[in-house]
Amino acid sequence: QVQLxxxxxxxxxxxxxxxxxxxxxxxxxxINAMAWYRQAPGKQRELVAISTSGGTTSYAESVKGRFTIxxxxxxxxxxxxxxxLKPEDTAVYYCNAKQWVGNSEYDYWGQGTQVIxxx
Length: 119
Hints:
Elements lengths: L3 E4 L2 E4 L4 E7 L8 E7 L6 E7 L4 E3 L7 E6 L4 E6 L8 E11 L2 E6 L3 E6 L1
Parallel strand pairs: 2-11
Antiparallel strand pairs: 1-3, 3-8, 4-5, 4-9, 5-6, 7-8, 9-10, 9-11
């Protein structure tokens, strides 16, 4: 089990920047992957960025070059730096932890933090 607590959402104008933080209740070194998802009104939740314990990062095409996921293992925290924000980035952003055990994947979620980008 792992609890996740996000912070950093808010309102920003298009073209601006915002940073999100997600702190885990235990060491993220032992967690296979940490990720950020988002869900806009009326849409399905989608993967935004993922960072594996092996050091691999991956991004949705829509945010490549604008968003950066990083982790600070000493603080058990994962960050999402969002630059050049667009109105279509408006969504609730969720922190996610993935633990792979054998052939099973266990997902843990934070409560979500709202990001609103005004045009």
